[in-house]
Design brief:
- The complex is a heterodimer of chains A (138) and B (403).
- Chain A has 1 helix and 7 strands, in the order αβββββββ.
- Chain A has 138 residues and is mainly beta.
- Chain A has a single domain, classed as Beta Barrel (OB fold (Dihydrolipoamide Acetyltransferase, E2P)), CATH 2.40.50.840.
- In chain A, strand 4 (83-90) and strand 5 form a beta hairpin.
- The longest helix of chain A is centred in the first third of the chain and has 8 residues, at 15-22.
- Chain A is globular.
- The mean pLDDT of chain A is 95.
- Chain B is an alpha/beta fold and 403 residues long.
- Chain B has a single domain (10-123, 221-401), classed as Peroxisomal Thiolase, Chain A, domain 1, CATH 3.40.47.10.
- Chain B has a 9-stranded mixed sheet with strand order 3-2-4-7-1-8-11-10-9, with helices on both faces.
- Chain B is globular, with a radius of gyration of 20 Å.
- Classes of the chains: A mainly beta (138), B alpha/beta (403).
- At the A-B interface, strand 3, strand 4 and strand 5 of A face helix 5, helix 6 and strand 5 of B.
Amino acid sequence: MSYPFPIPTPGTHTRPFWEGAKLGKLMLPRCQDCNRVHWYPRFLCPVCHSNNLEWVQASGEGRIHTYAVQHLAFGPWAKEAPFVTAYIDLNEGDRMLTVLRGVDPNKPQDIKIGARVRVEFEAANDDMHIPFWRVVED
Amino acid sequence: MAGQLSMAAAIVGAAEANEIGFLEEPVTALQLHIEAIRNLSIQTGVPIAKIEGVFSTGWSSELCEHLGIKPKYIDTTAVGGCSFEMHVHHAMAAIHAGIIDIALVSHGENGHSARKIGGGGAGNYGRGGGVASPAQEMTMAYGLGSAPSNYAHAMVRHMHRFGTTTEDFAHIAKVTRDWATLNPRAAMYSKKKHPFGGPITVEQVETSRLIAWPLTILHCCMVADHGGAVLVASPKVAAGLNTKPVWIAGAGESMGHSNMLEMDDFTATSAGISSTAAYTMAGLGPDDMEMAQLYDSFTITAAITAEMLGLAPRGEGHLLWKNGHAAPGGRLPINTNGGGLSFNHSGMYGMPLLIEAYRQLSGTAEDGINGDKGKQTSARTCVVNGTGGSLSTTATLVLVADD
């Protein structure tokens, strides 16, 4: 069965992220001047405004910063409700949005802010593998 | 020490479209604009032809053309629901600079009718089509599709950080509804006006339908039809009108982010920055405020905003409602029209904030009808704060009544 959810169209400067995703690697942009990792990908470092940016392979690990349970969703996601969305604090710094896996949307109180999560990739098609984060044991 | 811009202009009138709320006969956003502008002209006695500056969220050239105005100043700032507070700020600056004497700030949005007839018109909230921004590219895959889907994350973080509960925030919805039952114009005024109208309990807020846990539907504002307009004028013009001026003592604006992905602290907005600027300009502080009109897209928005404006300590914004201070008869009335939660919210709520603040400080907040108690208060100062986007942009005004 084909992937039912919206698939991003890669922008002009985000190819390395999607190429990495195909190989199961989480690639993040990093500034070579101030060493900070940022997300989402910029044309300039949002911290020091240098354009001396590179892509680095990240650990693929992080922690839950905050979350919510979506009971009302739209388009292809409507059928999935309820599902849990979360903002993930990456071990390397900055934050990603995800649909969180390995949690029960009907027991939101059991989900812990600060819980460890690991990235995994789902093939939406030959080119696009979408990152999702899953709660793992501490 | 008050800044030079302080009191350089006043809001001299505030009006709405003829009918607002959940309209049976669909209306266009343009009609809502034009009705409000006509009512404003009648109220103030200022002919439409005398308007020199036009401020709106993307609509200004269409409005000018429709009205046959040749303006000297055009502003179409569109950064969400706080845009209208920014328009007032910008209008005051343009008046102070001597470019114009009379500015129109206008709003029309058919959030309800659009479901039947579409958006209709040229105004828009933000970016157009084409290639997605990288922030959109990296967030579009995850099923977030509405404001509550985003704002719920802020409430969870607030609960985690400060130990607040859904019940704490439910008091905000309950008290705000209490205000709406004093306002016949409020969509949720009574059961007769709307099947879900009339008083509500904290328990009802807690157990109503889940939209995005922990937000139930009664933690969320409505999406209805609203049009409104205010006139901002120089002291010279204000002195010649029959309507009372409400003085703009302070104004400030800022933003934290555009996409919620970039929200550094999910329990704080840029209202800390925008309100500091507004208070400084006014030479007044939060303790001097006798009333507040706060964008309550969700209960959590109102709570965080109260904290950012210094009306309550961090983590304790909800106590203003829970302890009755914000309620009818309380020491700091908040959202006296019934708010976006129970009065009206068309998508961008900044204009109803301005209209209610003007009415309260000019002594023209409607009385109740049929023997009901009215919502007019005795407040002489009011802090107004709009919030746009996903807790993204903010603008704060400090308004004071005429002597």
